[in-house]
Amino acid sequence: MACLRGGHRGGTCDNAISDGGSITCWQALRWPPAPRPVRFRKRWARATTRRLSRNFARRDCQRLLSRKFRSESRARCRIYAAQRCRRDPVTTPIRVLYAEGDATVAEQTKLAFAAHAPDLQLEIVGTGRTCLVRLAETNYDVLLLDSDLPDMDGVDLLKRLADAGTSLPIVMVTATGDEALVVQVIGLGACDYVPKQGAYLERLPGILRSVVAEFRTAQDRPVAGRQQRRILYVASDSTDRDLTLKYFDEATPHFTLEVVRSASRALELLQQTPFDLVLADLDTQAMGALGLLREVKHHGFLLPFVILTSGGDEKSAVAALKLGAYEYIVKRRNYIAQLPYAIDHAISRFQLVQVNRRLHEELQKRERLQQTMAESLALLDTLQKHAPIGIAFMDRNYRFQRVNDELAAINGLPASAHLGRTVAEVVPAIWPKLEPVYRRVLAGEPALNVEISGETLAHVGVERHWVASYYPVRNPNHEIVGLGIFVSEVTERKKAEIALREQAAALVETARQKDEFIAMLSHELRNPLAPVRSALELLRRFGPQNAIAASTFDVMERQIKHMVRLLDDLLDVSRITSGRIRLNMQVIDMRQIVGEGIESARSVIDRRRHRLETVLPPEPLFVRGDATRLVQVLVNLLNNAAKYTPEGGTISLAATADGAQALLRVADTGAGISPRLLPRVFDLFTQDDRTLDRAQGGLGIGLTLVRRITELHGGTVDVHSPGRGQGSEFVVRLPRVVPDAVVAALPSGNVTAPSPRTPKRCLLVEDNMDAAQMLQIALELEGHKVSLAFDGDQALAMATTFQPDAVILDLGLPRLNGYDTARAIRQVPGLENVLIIAATGYGQQADRERSRAAGFDHHLVKPIDLNTLIATLAAGRPNRVIG
Questions:
Q1: Which residues contact 153 (CB under 8 A, 6 or more apart)?
Q2: What is the pTM for the complete model shown?
Q3: pLDDT recorded at residue 120
Q4: What is the DSSP-derived secondary structure letter of residue 756?
Q5: Which among 468, 489, 510 is the end of a domain?
């Protein structure tokens, strides 16, 4: 506090405070022992009175005295002043001016202070005007101010005190706790704010003591400890520069002035060196202070700007302040003494502005964060409230922190009943299943789509099923503080899945039974055909040789082949639909496929007197596929065309190349296909409308085989028909093989010539006596010696004595089946390498693999073609199964 007046009692200075040994009041030196007391007192009194009359602050008096006397005298005066004038901020009585409009409250405060705070010297005034008068007349240590006075409120009084530059700690008391008022009061310079609530009178003395102690400590801080300030001083007038420099050197050691004459040089220094403030004369050379201020703002320098002028032009002052100058000082009498305070004030204001700016930015950032958090929380609440799944968050102790209604319904408890409780308390029945999962999640490993089953309070005694995902929840430091839970009940879906699995198992079982039935049906139908075919071969070779007999034999041959083909198609459909068909893939010329297909379908085409038109490419047209299956595709298409074309029609067959594809076209002039049937023509068992006589016949599976086999070869098949009675066209597209790939795919090496036919000792094992006798006769006519056995036991007995070269063995034998019989024959000494041929009605791939595993060398399907059997006997034991 500056010592501006007397008030010294009993030889002590009430306002004198030692600043680390500096003298703060000239009256404190009335008593020190000095070597030259008279001259000392006179000089000091004159100088101090002169400075005080100009309202200089305390530190100016100190520094002035430091210039006037020798160092030894200054030191002695400082020591004595410190001893006489320093006060203890805690024990020294504190003078309090209390402005209170309520007399009752004032009296209560006075009594409370007298009883509990005798060190507080309380003076009470009832109005704001009286308060201002007393502050002007007397020095006080602290002002206790009521916010609601009769003539003015506390805020107005604070504003007046701030305008008057009063340096006094102020504590405001109020009957309300309005936060806006608190902010306004603190902003106007009040040190504290005390609501009149509860036992505030007991706390008030301590608050006043603390405020006064802090204020005195701040005032007693030594000048030497102040932060050094770098000032850029821009002035053209040499006299002003010299006077200012001299004063600052002597009176303000914490200021360092860098002096330049022009604004341009000032800009250069600002770019090179940091300064705390720019002090510029309005009449600076070149651009002047206002121009320099514009450039400073333009270049983005953040520092306060103080302008000096000798003219006092109001227009210039307004312009300077608009440009952002912090002070505008007119060079009147003793203006230099005001500069340090103006500079300190400008720097403080600048720092306050920067602090306010940073605080504003921080507040805006916090507001944005709060808004973002509020939006996130609102979004989270919305998601939790409306999510169709259960959502919850829990801490590391597995205690629920947030739970939505869906999860509460799953657990059978209200959402509020979850909060603060552990999972073990809420769902004890399934906690043992959840604990290991939770431990992994808290270790940082999410658990996704975990299936949980158990009971909850929502359905006691009923097992429920859920799918849950668990995620670790992390704080901003990426530390795991809990876990998030997302639960979806899938009980009904689980039931549906179980039902679907049961249905699928039933379908698989049905398919298996169907396959077994088809296999059994094929076997049972092939067995009667076997003796018929053998008998037909005998009649063809040794029966009557006339036209009627030959025609009869042809009819019988065609019907047998037709029956065999129907059985083969039926089995093929079963194998293809179940994915059990295997293809022998090799490079084939499509012209060869066409030739074999025409040969196989020729009898049907000729019988209906159709004209077949064939178009083949001059060059080979190679594809990769199973020759037998591709011939089957073509034969089915030709038979279909022949069957649905009236007698004497035309069938067109063309094999052409279309880029990377090979095309096979079969067209007819027959009945055509109705638009209703066209999309389903390749479906299983699909046939066009038929008459009761079923003139066309068939099972409706031929075209299904065409499409499935073509797709297995990577191709497609399409059908086109203008309508009923306008014919139809089928187009098969297969991937074409380029010539270079053909060479690599062709087999290499010499072709082994077939073995010559030599008579063999054959053991024929067949439980169907007719089939056995017909086949025995046919083989004996070929020169082979044949012995018959009608079951497995008899076959084993005869094999030991007969020692056959080949065994033709039926699989479906009574008692000992064909598989076991074959294994047993392999164990007979001398028959380890005997040729064993399976002759059976079972022709599926699984049957062939089973016969190979049992030791069979070949697998022939009934009715057996005699030429195939003779060739098989001649070939001997192969390295692969023939069928």
A1: 147
A2: 0.37
A3: 92
A4: P
A5: 489
Are residues 186 and 243 both part of a single domain? no
The answer to whether the Cα torsion of 355, 360, 363, 368 is positive or negative is negative
Regarding whether 296 and 325 lie in a shared domain, the answer is yes
Give me 387's structure tokens: 């999510």
Burial (0-12, 13-18, 19+ Cβ within 10 Å), 247: middle
Percent of the chain at pLDDT exceeding 90: 19
Q: What residue type is 533 in one-letter code?
A: R
Distance CA 615, CA 655 (A): 6
Q: Give yes or no for residue 552 having a pLDDT over 70.
A: yes
- Whether residues 598 and 725 share a domain: the answer is yes
Pairing of strands 586-589, 622-625: antiparallel
Preceding omega of 756 cis (within 30 degrees of 0): no
Nearest-CA neighbor of 282 among 274, 293, 271? 293
CA distance 672 to 80: 133
Question: Does any domain span residue 655?
Answer: yes
- Which of 712, 709, 703, 697 is CA-nearest to residue 684? 703
752 is a domain residue = no
Does 607 share its domain with 736? yes
Strand (E) or helix (H) holding 63: helix 58-68
CA 750 to centroid of chain Cα atoms: 64
Q: Do 203 and 239 belong together in one domain?
A: no
For residues 638 and 651, what is the distance between their CA atoms, to the nearest angstrom? 8
Segment holding 771, helix H or strand E: helix 769-781
Closest of 277, 283, 342, 278 to residue 312, by C-alpha: 283
Element of type H or E holding 467: strand 464-474
* Residue 830 near residue 803 (C-beta atoms within 8 A): yes
Percent of the chain with pLDDT over 70: 79
pLDDT in tens, 618-627: 899 999 998 8
Alpha-carbon gap, residue 270 to 296, rounded angstroms: 9
Please work out, in degrees rounded to the nearest 5, the angle formed at the alpha carbon of residue 335 by the alpha carbons of 215 and 242. 115
Return d(Cα 806, Cα 784) in angstroms, integer.
Answer: 10
The CATH number for 265's domain is 3.40.50.2300
Number of structural domains found in the chain: 6
Task: Let me know whether 715 and 778 are in one domain.
Answer: no
Whether residue 121 is found in the same domain as residue 241: no
What is d(CA 864, CA 778) in angstroms, rounded to the nearest whole number?
12
* Model pLDDT for residues 424-470, shown as the tens digit of each residue: 999 888 899 899 999 999 998 888 888 888 888 777 878 888 889 99
Domain that holds residue 108: 94-219
Final residue in a domain of this structure, among 447, 469, 489: 489
Same domain? For 761 and 828 the reply is yes
Across 619-769, the runs of DSSP E, i.e. the strands, are: 622-625, 650-658, 661-668, 716-720, 728-735, 761-765
